[in-house]
Amino acid sequence: MMASESHQDVIFEQRERVGWIILNRPETLNALHPTLIAQIRSLLDSLREDTDIGSLVITGAGRGFSSGADLNWLQGIPPERIDARGFMEPFHSLARMLQNYPKSLIAAVNGVAAGGGMSLALLCDIAIASKSASFTASFVRIGLVPDLGLAYTLPRLVGEARARELMLTGRIVRADEALALGLVSRIVPDEELPATVQQIAGAIAGNSAFALDRIRALATLAGSTDFDNFLRVEASMQGECLTSEEHKRRLAEFMKRQSERRQGRSEQISHEKVERS
User: Fold this and answer.
1) Domain with 182 in it: what CATH number?
2) For the segment 175-195, what is each residue's pLDDT rounded down to a tens digit?
3) What pLDDT is stored for residue 257 in this prediction?
4) What is the pTM of this model?
5) Terminal CA-to-CA distance of the chain, rounded, Å?
6) pLDDT tens profile 70-122
7) By C-alpha distance, which of 76, 70, 123, 127 is closest to 99?
8) Are strands 18-23 and 10-15 parallel, antiparallel or unpaired?
9) Phi-psi region of 182 (alpha: psi -120 to 50; beta: other; left: phi over 0)
10) Other CB atoms closer than 10 Å to residue 92's CB: what's the count?
11) Are 111 and 8 in a shared domain?
12) Do 135 and 223 share a domain, yes or no?
């Protein structure tokens, strides 16, 4: 099943239990603009409690994922109108939303992911890249600091030394290097990206939402606390899972499938013995 809905700068498609959020400004390589940001936030809000959607994919229409901030928009803002905290709040609101979102997020990086586009991809749980994808923390080239949390997320993926190099040089990282650095979990031929991402997102969507939420929380916590506190939180979450109805149901289903497989193998062995006798 595929359902599609357009929000001007954002297209939403439901493909089975996977929701695809498609940035739809291909003429600008999906440059980020306050209107686009607001539409993504509104869409995410509307999907938060939707039980028909198990995971979400973010990708770009056309030749790129996102080229970062819309430079024409930036250039047109009078300096006297820029209040730093207020100016960044819509972008930071999206970053917080993605960091704490209750559904798993996959970035399908189908071309350039520059500046805020790179930041957006790394706010997802998983990034999968096409062969033609590239990443660049290009902020420094136009006299800006990384935003949308990039200086927070990047060192956690590639280490502090490599993160500093990428942010201070703004150099372009091609897909093969992005995989080696750990920016993405895999690269695939361009034409295979949608199907590969759909398969992975579908596998995630089929798992326990109760457990997925806690796995993602544990993965985030791991980089910001000591081991003993981590184990305390782990124990608490495992207790919640062990007493949940979803765990009981899924465990019973798993045990039933195991029993049926064992019974099937036993019958097959008996049948083969009869044939040999």
Assistant:
1) 3.90.226.10
2) 999 999 999 999 999 999 999
3) 87
4) 0.87
5) 51
6) 998 888 877 766 676 677 888 999 999 999 899 999 999 999 999 999 999 99
7) 123
8) antiparallel
9) left
10) 14
11) yes
12) no
Q: Give the separation between CA 29 and CA 36, rounded to whole angstroms.
A: 13
Instruction: Quote the CA–CA distance of 80 and 266 in Å, as a whole number.
Output: 79
Beta pairing partners, 4: 13
Domain boundary among 144, 173, 205: 205
The last residue of one of the domains, among 170, 185, 205, is 205
Token representation of residue 263: 């019974």
Look up the domain containing 250 and give its range.
Answer: 209-276
Q: How far apart are CA 261 and CA 273, in angstroms?
A: 18
Number of independent structural domains in the chain: 2
In one-letter notation, the amino acid at residue 238 is Q
Do 103 and 234 fall within a single domain? no
Same domain, 20 and 138: yes
